[in-house]
Amino acid sequence: MSAILSPGTLSTTCCIVGGGPAGIMLGFLLARSGIQVTVLEKHKDFFRDFRGDTIHPSTLELMRELGLLEAFLAVPHQEMPRLSVSFGNRSFPLADFSGLPAQANFITLMPQWDFLKFLSTQAAQLPTFSLLLEHEVIGLIKQNGRILGVQANTPNGPVEIRAGLTVGCDGRQSIVRSSAELPVIDRGAPIDVLWFRLSRSTSDPANALGNFNYGAGLILINRGDYFQCGYIIAKDSFASTIKPAGLPAFRQSLVHLVPFLTDRVSEITAWDQLNLLSVQVNRLQRWHLPGLLCIGDAAHAMSPVGGLGINLAIQDAVAAANILAGPLRSALVTEITLAHVQSRREFPTRVTQAFQVAAHHLLTRFLGNPGAIKPPLLLRLLSPIALFRRTTARFIGLGVRPEHIRPHGDR
After folding, report:
1. Any alpha helices (H) in 242-308, and if so which ranges?
2. What is the pLDDT of residues 365-374, one digit of tens each?
3. d(Cα 61, Cα 66) in Å, to the nearest integer?
4. How crowded is residue 155: how many other Cβ atoms within 10 Å of its Cβ?
5. The CATH classification of domain 3-187+280-405, taken from the options 3.40.190.10, 3.30.450.150, 1.20.80.10, 3.50.50.60
6. Does an H or E element contain 340, and which?
7. Around Cβ 297, how many Cβ atoms within 10 Å?
8. Label partner for 87 (CA 20 to 30 A): which of 9, 142, 325, 398?
9. How far apart, in whole angstroms, are the C-alpha atoms of residue 211 and residue 220?
């Protein structure tokens, strides 16, 4: 638990800003190592509808290593052992996860709030873990070039949380990294995504995840009785093109792209049912300052392409916990230690972002072009090859340089 220094001031060994996948996982792992950790989440709960839902085999393997896989898979979810994508009027197998060297060799589709609730419930059983909801960080506490903690607003008034180490896990709009004035390398992104819901029928295709044609793309994430839909559009075209054309035209574009949705697009009756994600692909040049580290989207904002962001953030958290547990226990977290976290995770970040940028270039070839598209030649050639599907599955499912939970005795 966090220690109270004086009214309006708390103290902890490690203060984690952001109760997303990276923040909760890091908090859990550090508390599991006996570190006093406080996680600050600005919302009153985890229920945000438009967040990543794909839990990849790399994360499921971490659940196994923690002894939590059976309990985790008892949470309602859908399993996807293979991944296909539709270009034009043809469907192409893209990845086969069944051959991966992991006990749970499939992608799990689970609402992120269920994932975070599960993980935070496990963490709450540890005496050194504290999750403070409705604590919105508004700035950093700085002294002589060092970060000493954060300032936050709460329902009970402002509070300062002093910490030996502050970790920014507060996403692509990170107040931590902006307050720290850490320089950003922006790779740019030519796409945006409109998120919304449509009901799902039991007769719908089991694997209808990716559909690309007629100048747009539609991602359908199976949540049992409904689809979480991601409509991929050209950058900034929502305000300039799609919205002025009106809702009937938007609904018709969905039917044109995925005909089996014809009987339910009428569920979209107002623009406020759609949530616009302005896609970013960027990363910090430097992930740390004395007393401060950024990981996850706070260190590297990812595109939704491949659903890789949540799993990359979790891998960051595992690497950070492995590297930081010992130094935090002895209160000797130096910049060399923090730089070690960045050096460990920067290469996977660079490779993953390069893949996403390449995918964006492919998408720009047809986004905004209303005609039927021809499937890419490379996909037509490679999709039938089993080795290609296994290699793609390994990249998507396990990622670059997958991390592992260190046994307690190795800490």
Report:
1. 243-245, 247-257
2. 777 677 778 8
3. 9
4. 9
5. 3.50.50.60
6. helix 335-363
7. 28
8. 398
9. 8
Concatenate the DSSP letters of all residues of 221-251 into one string: EE-SSEEEEEEEEETTHIIIIIHHH-HHHHH
Reported confidence tier of residue 88, pLDDT bands at 50, 70, 90: confident
pLDDT at 207: 61
Rounded CA separation 57/65 (Å): 12
Comparing CA positions, the residue from 6, 17, 14 lying closest to residue 128 is: 14
Ranking 50-59, 248-257, 282-291 by mean pLDDT, the lowest is 50-59
CB proximity list for 64: less than 8 A, separation 6 or greater: 102, 103, 104
User: Quick one: pLDDT at residue 368?
Assistant: 67
Report residue 199 as tokens: 């009901």
The structural domains of the chain, with segments of one domain joined by +, span: 3-187+280-405, 191-234+236-278
d(CA 188, CA 239): 19
How many CB atoms are located within 10 Å of the residue 173 CB?
A: 11
Beta bridge partners, 293, equal: 167, 288
261-285: pLDDT as tens digits: 999 999 999 999 999 988 889 999 9
